[in-house]
């Protein structure tokens, strides 16, 4: 069922001139999800009947509207095979609207990992090369994503191979201005993927994205979480700060090559000054030996023992993000339970998101729960000791 977009604001005097673009689209009643402070809806471009996705964000939650328009404008002018294609944007008196391509597949990298338990090295190489290529494209153009994770890499189609990924969700992204690189201090992102320098609030930049991708690669090859918990965010923070180097428990990584481990170590380097850049990571010898994998490898690796695993199970899909503006000292409190997905400097903390009465809710949480019911989370004694000594 299709309908032409119609809101009470259609008839509100003083609308921005770009709001007339709303007539280019017919909206369906299908909600595609809720991301950040906006609702994503399915629509059709009227002139050629092309399906698209449109995100609607209340202006009341966007404090720095100039910065918001800047990242949207950048995305519209961007073109990369592994980044979702932004088509155009318009706004009303009360909302921002962003139109982008509708990705055919409803499956993301998290879903795929749950299906196959863990990736083969060749499949992980294909996925990481695409993820790093998209990230390098952004960094070369002074854009930091700030929320790279399994759920934000969509499979382009239901028949996609491991490298046919599309990066989505630029709600936390920033176009950095001259002199801004290295000076970000907002605690923003999804715990379990956030770099240690973000928690320290002493300044971070593009290389925080690389840590996130290191976490992604570690999870793809292990089928496990890097942390002992997926819900206790203060513990995740302390374990992140306690990591001197990437751990590779024998029970999980017994059949992973030294080159793969070295690659992950370059990405999960606690020091941003020595951490690999996206371009450096793309040149790593592990990726340069990538085999062509147009389809996922169905010959599973030797199962790893779970009896003495030092790490937790995969987090449930849709884990809430860290509340923007939280500090390291807030870790003992409840501020890590927030769901904000826009950067702190863009949000008005006094405004509540206006998502309407029919806001779509995430529907995939049950899948992760069903696969992991009854499993016990464990943490190695060595890591536990490092965590305790740093409290």
UniProtKB/TrEMBL annotation:
Q: Which Pfam families match?
A: Pkinase
Q: Where is this region: Disordered?
A: 293-380
**Protein kinase domain location, by residue?**
26-287
GO MF annotation: an example: protein serine/threonine kinase activity
Q: Which domain of life is it from?
A: Eukaryota
Amino acids binding ATP: 63
Q: Where is the composition biased (Basic and acidic residues)?
A: 364-375
Q: Please provide the record's keywords in A-Z order.
A: ATP-binding, Kinase, Nucleotide-binding, Serine/threonine-protein kinase, Transferase
User: InterPro entries per the record?
Assistant: Kinase-like_dom_sf, Prot_kinase_dom, Protein_kinase_ATP_BS, Ser/Thr_kinase_AS
Which family is this sequence assigned to? Belongs to the protein kinase superfamily.
What is the name listed in the Swiss-Prot or TrEMBL entry for this protein? Protein kinase domain-containing protein
Origin species, per record, is: Mixia osmundae (strain CBS 9802 / IAM 14324 / JCM 22182 / KY 12970)
- What is the name of the gene encoding this protein? Mo05718
């Amino acid at each position: 069922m299709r309908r032409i977009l119609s809101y009470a604001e259609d008839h509100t005097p003083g609308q921005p001139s770009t709001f007339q673009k709303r007539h280019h689209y017919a909206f369906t009643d299908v909600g595609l999800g809720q991301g950040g402070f906006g609702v994503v809806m399915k629509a059709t471009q009227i002139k050629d009947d092309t399906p698209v996705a449109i995100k609607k964000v209340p202006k009341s939650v966007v404090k720095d509207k100039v910065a918001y328009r800047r990242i949207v404008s950048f995305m519209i002018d961007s073109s990369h095979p592994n980044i979702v294609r932004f088509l155009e944007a318009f706004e009303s008196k009360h909302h921002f609207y962003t139109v982008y391509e509708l990705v055919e597949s409803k499956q993301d990298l998290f879903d795929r990992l749950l299906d196959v338990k863990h990736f083969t090295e060749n499949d992980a190489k294909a996925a990481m090369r695409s993820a790093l290529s998209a990230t390098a494209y952004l960094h070369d153009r002074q854009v930091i994503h700030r929320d790279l994770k399994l759920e934000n890499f969509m499979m382009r189609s239901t028949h996609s191979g491991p490298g046919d990924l599309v990066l989505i969700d630029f709600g936390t992204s920033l176009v950095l201005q001259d002199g801004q690189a290295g000076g970000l201090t907002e605690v923003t992102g999804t715990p379990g993927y956030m770099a240690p320098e973000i928690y320290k609030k002493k300044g971070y930049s593009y290389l925080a994205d690389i840590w996130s991708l290191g976490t992604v690669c570690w999870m793809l090859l292990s089928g496990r979480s890097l942390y002992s918990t997926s819900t206790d965010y203060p513990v995740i923070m302390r374990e992140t700060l306690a990591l001197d180097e990437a751990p590779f428990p024998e029970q999980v990584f017994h059949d992973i090559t030294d080159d793969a481990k070295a690659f992950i170590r370059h990405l999960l380097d606690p020091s941003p000054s020595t951490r690999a850049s996206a371009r450096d990571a793309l040149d790593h010898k592990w990726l340069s030996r990538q085999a062509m994998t147009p389809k996922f490898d169905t010959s599973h690796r030797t199962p790893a023992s779970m009896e003495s695993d030092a790490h937790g199970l995969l987090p449930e899909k849709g884990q809430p993000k860290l509340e923007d503006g939280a500090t390291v000292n807030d870790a003992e409190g409840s501020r890590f339970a927030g769901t904000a997905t826009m950067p702190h400097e863009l949000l008005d903390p006094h405004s509540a998101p206006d998502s309407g009465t029919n806001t779509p809710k995430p529907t995939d949480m049950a899948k992760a729960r069903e696969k992991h019911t009854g499993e016990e989370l464990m943490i190695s004694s060595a890591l536990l000791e490092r965590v305790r000594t740093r409290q």
